[in-house]
Design goal:
The structure holds two protein chains of two kinds. By secondary structure, chain A is mostly helical. Chain A has one domain. Chain A is built from three helices and no strands. In chain A, helix 2 packs across helix 3. Chain B has two domains: 386 residues, Sodium/glucose cotransporter (Up-down Bundle), CATH 1.20.1730.10; 88 residues, no CATH class. The chains are: A mainly alpha, B mainly alpha. Chains A and B meet through helix 1, helix 2 and helix 3 of A and helix 8, helix 10, helix 11, helix 14 and helix 17 of B.
Chain lengths: 97, 524
């Protein structure tokens, strides 16, 4: 297993792990680079193109890291969703505390 | 005043018909159930709510305030619009927790996270506050459209407000959130395309990128192209301390729920996504588009500055993007440009009509008035509330405009004192409903003291807003932390159910241990 994990069991994916922390770091960085990089690139300022390119790389990395985990969480959660929805309705209708 | 050629009218009428009838077209889907009328049946692929996030957060007043900060501070002004970056963390943190809760609204989430009387008080407060807030935003954005139409065509203020908001109501009343999200998709495309086109047009009209940078340099204003140009560490009206505070508020705020006023809109999009993954991606990509859009607007405003560098009156330079569009675009595109303004207006109005109606229908009518209401009844209550919100927004927009600055103040202050409790409710199992209620109440009193009363009586000096934020955060914590610790924790059964369903991060050790002991989750 490498530094970035791409195979998950449902139980493991439900935990908050290093991959989530990496996503939390990369995601705002990506936003800042894409935002500032776009503005500077419109004025043909070289630093803008560098930032835009870095932003694209960081964005790719972000989704490369987090996507396998999100897929497993989603498919596992879908199996329980019906039961949770029924409970939600019971709470709203005062049938459960 | 702007003159439209026949081609301009053609585009305008075509887009109004397209935007309105594409929403109405989904009438049959919208009326099926409450979940359809407010969440499109919880089955949307990520790109539809993403386009809705983008379209909703592009309103008629957005280019006005972005124009103001960019003209004043250059590209560093982009950071004023960076508050929306709370979605950077939220997309992979609180969005996941909220989507797993399946709560229709943030008010409903309170009754899943907390229990007993405290939870009901919070649910009722959130619901009432959000119904009012959505009407307030509708009036505020609606009257902005009235002003734009007055500026462009000389119409009385009420015409732009009443006519266009009523057009939007046609498809929101018919198809609910289905109409909102489908119309948002095409409105988002129209608006994004026109923002890019108009901005590039503006840059070229000002002589092209190289001429603009050379001209700005010759004026000794090159700092305007530096996104990290601040007025000092603590000095001036745009210091580094403000920037760092903004980064903390925006980025760390993503770990909580409600740390930004936009959360309540995003929460609806999160629940309308078909999976947890779709919810995360919708928030992330919708906000990415918002930030990139800001960059194009910023470029247009810098181009405008190179042409008109000596404007002192904010009312002149804040309208820069509109001026560029209507003064420089050729015949035909002017009509297209106005259609894109309508698109950004429609998307914001439609969202708040449906969102306000959802809080009333789900959290007030169904939960407190008629718990056994049928799906058909709930859809009709949603429609009637939509209509009431529309009429209320006319009243607010036309009659109560002078209150706007007070309410904007109230919003900022609410954001300051409630920011940390909004995170604590997600990350700390021991934080209870009484602590959270205490935080809301304490903040109302403290904010008036710190921002107005004490400076007025010279007890403390008038403080910059970033300093007010930190002071209010600390003062509030001195009240709600003791209240939390002196009152009992939430019921463990309730907490375990919440934990197993939502799997929050942070300090949930005792609850997780209990969930494992009960065999509800496995220890990894």
């Amino acid at each position: 297993m490498g530094f970035i994990r791409r195979q998950w069991s449902p139980e493991e994916a439900d935990e908050w792990t290093r991959e989530d922390v990496l996503a939390w770091i990369l995601s705002p960085l990506s936003y800042a680079l894409l935002s500032v990089g776009s503005a500077l690139s419109i004025f043909l300022i070289p630093a803008g193109f560098v930032m835009l390119l870095l932003g694209a790389v960081v964005t790719f990395l972000l989704f490369y890291i987090i996507d396998p985990k999100l897929k497993v969480i989603s498919s596992e959660y879908e199996k329980k969703q019906k039961e949770y929805l029924e409970r939600l309705e019971r709470i709203t209708r005062w049938e459960e505390e | 005043m702007v003159e439209f050629a026949p081609l301009d009218w053609f585009w305008l009428v075509l887009f109004i018909l397209l935007m309105t009838f594409s929403g109405v077209f989904f009438y049959r889907l919208g009326k099926r159930s409450q979940a359809d009328f407010f969440l499109a049946g919880r089955g949307l692929p990520w790109w539809l709510p993403a386009s809705s996030v983008y379209a909703t957060h592009t309103a008629t007043d957005t280019p006005i305030w972005i124009g103001g900060v960019i003209y004043k501070y250059g590209l560093a002004g982009l950071w004023y619009a960076f508050f929306s970056a709370w979605c950077a963390i939220s997309a992979f943190a609180s969005t996941r927790i909220f989507r797993r809760s399946l709560a229709y609204t943030q008010a409903e989430w309170q009754s899943l996270r907390f229990s007993g009387l405290g939870a009901e008080l919070l649910r009722g407060w959130f619901a009432g506050w959000q119904v009012f807030m959505n009407m307030f935003i509708l009036g505020w954005v609606g009257i902005a459209m009235g002003k734009v139409c007055h500026f462009l065509f000389g119409w009385p203020l009420w015409v732009g407000l009443v006519f266009f908001s009523s057009l939007v109501a046609v498809y929101v009343l018919s198809a609910g959130y289905w109409g909102v999200v489908v119309a948002d998709f095409q409105q988002g495309i129209i608006a994004f395309f026109m923002i890019i086109l108009t901005s590039i047009w503006a840059v070229m009209a000002a002589g092209g990128p190289q001429n603009i940078t050379a001209k700005i340099a010759s004026m000794g204003q090159s700092w305007r192209l530096n996104p990290f140009h601040f007025t000092g560490t603590f000095s001036g009206d745009f210091p580094l301390a403000w920037f760092l505070t903004m980064v903390v508020i925006a980025v760390l705020g993503g770990f909580g729920m409600g740390t930004s006023i936009d959360w309540y809109v995003e929460a609806q999009r999160i629940q309308s996504a078909r999976t947890v993954r779709d919810a995360s991606y919708s928030i992330w990509w919708g906000t990415a588009l918002v930030l990139i859009r800001n960059s194009f607007w910023a470029a247009a405003i810098i181009a405008f500055f190179s042409l008109f560098p000596h404007l002192k009156n904010p009312q002149e330079y804040e309208m820069a993007w509109y001026v560029i569009g209507f003064k420089t675009l050729p015949v035909g595109l002017v009509g297209f440009f106005f259609a894109s303004i309508l698109a950004i207006h429609f998307s914001t109005i439609s969202t708040h009509l449906n969102l306000g109606a959802m809080y009333f229908t789900r959290d007030i009518f169904q939960h407190y008035i008629k718990p056994d209401a049928s799906e058909r009844t709930l859809v009709w209550v949603g429609r009637i509330t939509t209509l009431i919100l529309l009429l209320g927004s006319f009243f607010y927009g036309l009659m109560m405009e002078e209150l706007t600055s007070w309410l904007i103040f109230a919003l900022w202050i609410m954001a300051a004192g409630i920011w940390l409790p909004n995170i604590l409710q997600v990350v700390w199992w021991r934080f209870n409903s009484w602590g959270y209620l205490a935080a809301w109440i304490a903040n109302l009193g403290l904010s008036w003291l710190v921002v107005w009363v004490l400076p007025e009586f010279k007890v403390i000096p008038s403080l910059p807003d970033y300093l007010q934020f930190w002071i209010l955060m600390v003062l509030g914590a001195l009240i709600y932390i003791p209240v939390t610790l002196l009152t009992p924790p939430e019921d463990m059964d309730h907490l375990v159910k919440f934990y197993v369903m939502s799997r929050p991060y942070g300090w949930w050790g005792p609850v997780k241990k209990e969930a494992i002991a009960r065999g509800l989750i496995k220890e990894v």
